[in-house]
Specification:
The complex is a heterotrimer. Chain A is built from nine helices and 17 strands. By secondary structure, chain A is an alpha/beta fold. Chain A folds into two domains: about 170 residues, 3-Layer(aba) Sandwich (Rossmann fold); about 120 residues, TPP-binding domain (Rossmann fold, 3-Layer(aba) Sandwich). By secondary structure, chain C is an alpha+beta fold. Helix content of chain C is about 50%, strand content about 15%. A four-stranded mixed sheet of chain C has the order 1-4-5-8. Chain C has a four-stranded antiparallel sheet with strand order 2-3-7-6, with no helix packed on it. In chain C, strands 9-10 form a two-stranded antiparallel sheet. Classes of the chains: A alpha/beta, B alpha/beta, C alpha+beta. Bound molecules: flavin-adenine dinucleotide (3 copies). One flavin-adenine dinucleotide binds next to strand 1, strand 3 and helix 12 of chain C.
Chain lengths: ~325, ~260, ~375
């Protein structure tokens, strides 16, 4: 039986959500197309992790080696190459994450495999792969039909699939030997750097008022702050606002910032790029204010206001001030 | 320290209403403004800063039609020293691997210590070209770089990971980096920079000169068979509040009270 | 016939637009309300080489043409007329020095202007001499090896900020020709007897400094005469033939901004269940604005590039100035109209555009004076 190989992603002893999202995608596709699912766990002293994978796939392949203690492109490329050559899977899934983005393109080039990055959906028809991607910052959907191939490499967007994968399986755990580390290019992992001490923890807030590039200029931030104060909310932001240093990095929501799940998330002038969505789409209620009716944020918001935020905010604040 | 930077021109889409052509294969670009890819702009800035601190030369390379020379001139005006344009002809409908092939052939004979690209393009968002190039060149690399320190024959970089975390890695030179936004604050182009560009001739090359056959690039070389574009479905998603501004805000306030437990 | 800008000119446009749109919008409202400006913006623009690009390379300028200066002006004014003017006007007078100044004067002053170390201003208008410059009464009298100047000037742009001011003075009141009575003098503003007072309450371009000046026994050496004694009037006309081009660029930049704001607003704003842009009235307005702007632009490009090629046609320049200013006013007016009540509030950019526009029909020759020049070229 052909196989879908899923590269399990973990960091500092924890499996990351993307691993289960990929397994969810793999199992769904596997069921429809009669394909087995194998999780590939690369690491060192990972015994605790394989147990969590067993229930969600048909096979757990474990490669243990001190060289794999931390993610490093050099070793991961060799290890993954070994596994792919060994298993010859039809599909290999990698997360479109800081690891997957670092690994997939070089892997594809090395093995001359067709690669599609940042996919949000997958399908197989007569062995031919179809993928859905979102391009132009989420403004356009692109449905790609791939040319026939015996093997595809796919990176999946975080959050595109459910992480609550069914745990009905009981995959065998199989150890595979690590390769001789011969083709290394000298990249060394030196350590993790946590962001500086933060002023507030946006992840702990019940209500977030979040501003994006649409705020226009730092002088407008008080508008949002006043509103946040009026409703007892915390101020957060999209990446460009943090890049511009209009708010500290600790306030950034999204894949490279924080994941939040407040009761109410109010997105002001945020277009809704998936990296941002990934950090907030599980909020219980999302309200978006954006002057572009086509902004992708409206696709995941529960309530939308199509207007200039500078007009909306003072009026909204007023509604709470007067009570 | 010689540095090669790959840059590309992209349409500005944040404020634009996008339309798709009849065949559903491409967006209509006639009414769009074009500019350097945001990530590439940071990459050029980083290269110029490194050059200013450690001497050497910055070469910018693009693959695109004649109009794309604009981004090369922008990069030259920011401080790059040389530029190469690979003509787009033959590369139409290439996938990222095909583009990387073109760039690879053009840069492999340029002596460099560092190769920079943007982490991704704001158009197709493939996030592939930089690392594909690194692999073709057989050099170490790091993606999503938000900080760079140059050592003796080595480079130490900060890579951006998820959840507000970074990792520090080092590697010997030559190496390839893909640059993430926010790494620096890109400079404005100056008139002096523009004047400097007069003296620089942009080298032109094409797929033929680079020895690429039709089978390797373009739609033939691509692993993608076809691409169908569509606008994301509207109608689902948010309940758009209507009425006067005041009515809308009244409704919103009610929602915040109900859902957020605000008094 | 080639209507396209060169690659380099397009690069200049793009660079100026990036700088202006990156730096001006954040500060525009504050400067407009408070009648202030942050000189750091001017210094940064100078560092980037945007000031006085027409100044020869011998004086550290870019050695480009007036058209290039116009392109920068257009972008700056499109981003914000007040800030645009506050920066662009800092070389107002260098055109006269380039044409008629002595080598020493040019060497002393022009490099400082380019570097953002000094501003220059030009004072012609007086309380009793506006359109009719031959009535200028500020008197310069020769005493030994000095000129002694007395009088007062009105509406001098950068009068309270400039390090050097060119004064249009009467030197030969009894000359039978009204056009041979005046001369230009270069006065450093730290000269004893020089006083300036900022004028408050301007309708528009409130970030830009405008001042009243009084000169009381101001003494300057003979070498501070600019060009020939008695040639002031003709020098002034030649000067205007350059600087009026810049006004055209200001006008076209402003009109373009009005159009851009209108397009944005009418697409976003709905009334009667449809975006304003869907009404034919709106569509026609937008179409008319775009057409007028194109016409004004082509007219001034022609005027500016012929000056750069050495052909001075005062009537053509006057046509370009009058017409582009009128287009700017029309566009600003329609832009405010399309914004409804919002356009009447200063937080909206169109409000600033509207108030700035009127000036274009007044300074550096009122529209009536421009038409006089045009008519004279046709009727003799
Ligand atoms: C590896 C990687 C990691 C990333 N991580 C993150 C992350 O963690 N978090 C994150 O946010 N981004 C992240 N990004 C960036 C992401 O791709 C987008 O670029 C970013 O989210 C866009 O931010 P924005 O929505 O604020 O800005 P834009 O996309 O520029 O959108 C601004 C929006 O404001 C609207 N607007 C403008 N003016 C007004 C007004 N007056 N009133 C109302 N609306 C207005 C516009 O219509 C537009 O929709 C990451 C990118 C990469 C490659
Ligand atoms: C913000 C600002 C900045 C300025 N900067 C400078 C500067 O840097 N240096 C400087 O020297 N001046 C400057 N000026 C002055 C400007 O050039 C004059 O205001 C302009 O020349 C008009 O002169 P006036 O105000 O005296 O009006 P007047 O000459 O009194 O004109 C009033 C009206 O009468 C009309 N008129 C006059 N004569 C005739 C005629 N014969 N036939 C028909 N109509 C006629 C005019 O066209 C105008 O409509 C500035 C003005 C302003 C408002
Ligand atoms: C200082 C001031 C005082 C005011 N005082 C009061 C007051 O006391 N009470 C009060 O109720 N309001 C007041 N207003 C509001 C004023 O009446 C409105 O601004 C005005 O009715 C226009 O509405 P609007 O601003 O929403 O513009 P919009 O209705 O958005 O109109 C914008 C533009 O689109 C045009 N337009 C709209 N629909 C169409 C169409 N179908 N076909 C063609 N063109 C169209 C309009 O003519 C206008 O040019 C005041 C406004 C101001 C500035």
């Amino acid at each position: 039986m052909d196989e879908i190989l899923v590269l399990a992603e973990h960091r500092q002893g924890e499996l990351r959500d993307i691993t289960f999202e990929m397994l969810f995608a793999a199992n769904t596709l596997g069921k429809e197309n009669d394909l087995a699912t194998a999780a590939l766990l690369l690491g060192h002293e990972t015994s605790g992790l394989s147990g969590k994978l067993k229930g969600a796939c048909d096979r757990v392949l474990v490669m243990e080696d001190p060289e794999l203690a931390h993610y490093n492109a050099d070793q991961y490329l060799m290890a993954l190459e070994t596994a792919i050559k060994d298993r010859k899977p039809l599909l290999t899934l990698i997360g479109h994450t800081a690891i997957g983005m670092d690994l997939a393109p070089a892997m594809a080039a090395r093995l001359s495999l067709p690669l599609v990055t940042d996919c949000v959906d997958l399908s197989l028809e007569e062995g031919r792969l179809g993928v859905l991607r979102q391009i132009y910052g989420g403004k356009i959907n692109a449905q790609l039909a791939m040319k026939p191939s015996d093997h595809y490499l796919i990176s999946l967007r975080t959050g595109a699939f459910d992480a609550e994968v069914e745990q009905g399986k009981s995959g065998d755990v199989e150890t595979i030997p690590a390769p001789a580390w011969t083709n290394l290019r000298g990249r060394q992992f030196l350590g993790y750097v946590e962001a500086e001490l933060e002023d507030v923890d946006i992840a702990a807030a019940d209500i977030l008022v979040s501003i994006g590039r649409g705020i226009g200029k730092p002088e407008n931030i008080p508008l949002a702050q006043e509103f946040a104060d009026a409703i007892g909310a915390t101020l957060s932001c999209s990446r460009p606002v943090a890049d511009e240093e209009w708010l500290p990095k600790s306030r950034q929501v999204g894949t490279s910032g924080k994941t939040v799940r407040p009761k109410v998330y109010i997105a002001l002038g945020i277009s809704g790029a998936y990296q941002h969505q990934a950090g907030m789409k599980n909020a219980d209620t999302i309200i978006a204010v954006n002057k572009d009716p086509m902004a992708p944020i409206f696709a995941i918001a529960h309530y939308g206001i199509v207007d200039d935020l500078a007009q909306v905010l003072p009026v909204l604040t007023e509604h709470f001030a007067k009570k | 320290m010689n540095i090669v930077v790959c840059v590309k021109q992209v349409p500005e889409v944040t404020d634009a209403e996008l339309e798709i052509n009849k065949e559903g294969a491409e967006i209509l670009k006639e009414d769009l403004e074009f500019d350097i890819n945001e990530w590439d702009n940071y990459a050029v800035e980083e290269a110029v800063r490194i050059k200013e601190a450690h001497h050497g030369k910055v070469t910018v390379v693009t693959l695109g039609d004649e109009d794309c020379a604009d981004v090369l001139r922008t990069a030259l005006a920011m401080g790059a020293d040389e530029a190469i344009r690979i003509d787009e002809q033959g590369f139409e409908f290439s996938d990222a691997a095909g583009i990387a092939q073109g760039l690879y052939r053009a840069v492999r004979d340029v002596p460099f210590d560092l190769l920079l690209t943007g982490a991704q393009g704001s158009d197709d968002g493939w996030a592939q070209v930089g690392l594909t190039l690194a692999e073709l060149l057989g050099i170490p690399y790091a993606s999503l770089v938000v900080g760079v320190e140059i050592g003796e024959g080595t480079i130490t970089v900060h890579r951006e990971l998820e959840s507000n975390t970074q990792e520090k890695v080092d590697m010997p030179l030559p190496a390839a980096l893909t640059i993430q936004t926010g790494i620096n604050n890109p400079r404005y182009v100056s008139i002096m920079g523009i004047q400097k560009v007069r003296r620089i001739e942009i080298k032109e090359t094409d797929s033929e000169e680079l020895g690429l056959s039709e089978a390797e690039i373009g739609s033939q070389g691509s692993r993608v068979d076809s691409q169908k574009l569509s606008l994301p479905p509207v109608g689902e998603g948010a309940d758009i509040l209507t009425g006067s501004l005041d009515e809308i805000c009244e409704k919103t306030a009610q929602i915040i009270r109900d859902k957020g437990g605000v008094m | 016939m080639d209507f396209a800008l060169s690659k380099e000119q397009r690069d200049i446009v793009r660079a100026a637009r990036k700088f202006a749109s990156g730096e001006f919008p954040d500060r525009a409202l504050e400067f407009d309300r408070d009648e202030t400006f942050d000189l750091d913006l001017w210094r940064r623009a100078c560092e980037l080489g945007f000031a006085g690009v027409f100044i020869d390379q011998a004086y550290n300028g870019a050695g480009m043409g007036y058209l290039e200066h116009c392109l920068i002006t257009e972008e700056f004014w499109a981003a914000d007329p007040g800030i645009g003017q506050a920066i662009i006007s800092c070389t107002f007078g260098s055109e006269l020095l380039l044409l008629f100044g002595s080598e020493d004067q040019k060497q002393l002053i022009l490099p400082q202007l380019v570097a953002g170390k000094a501003m220059i201003a030009t004072a012609i208008t007086e309380p009793d001499a506006g359109s009719d410059v031959t009535m200028v009464a500020t008197a310069a009298v020769r005493h030994g090896d000095e000129w002694v100047i007395n009088g007062s000037k009105m509406f001098t742009t950068n009068g309270s900020l400039a390090t050097y001011i060119l004064f249009f003075c009467r030197t030969d009141p009894h000359n039978p020709s009204r056009h041979a009575r005046h001369s230009f003098f270069l006065v450093p503003t730290d000269t004893p007897g020089f006083k300036s007072k900022k004028i408050h309450g301007k309708m528009g371009i409130r970030a830009s400094d405008t001042a009243e000046i009084s000169l009381s026994n101001v003494r300057v050496p003979l070498t501070n005469l600019v060009g020939e004694e008695g040639a002031g009037f003709h020098q002034l006309m030649a000067f205007f033939d350059r600087t009026r081009l810049h006004i055209c660029a200001q006008a076209v930049g402003l009109a373009r901004a009005a159009l851009e704001e209108s397009i944005r607003h009418t697409k976003e704003r709905s009334q009667f269940g449809a975006p304003l842009a869907s009404f034919q009235v709106t569509q026609f307005k937008i179409a008319e604005m775009a057409t007028r702007i194109r016409a004004a632009k082509n007219l001034y490009y022609e005027a500016a590039s012929s000056v750069d090629q050495g052909t001075i046609d005062p009537a053509l320049i006057a046509m370009a100035k009058w017409f582009s200013a009128e287009v700017a006013l029309q566009c600003a007016d329609e832009a405010v109209q399309m914004h409804g009540g919002y356009g009447y509030i200063d937080e909206y950019k169109v409000n600033r555009l509207y108030r700035a526009a009127k000036l274009l029909e007044i300074y550096e020759g009122t529209k009536e004076m421009e038409k006089t020049i045009i008519a004279r070229s046709l009727l003799g």
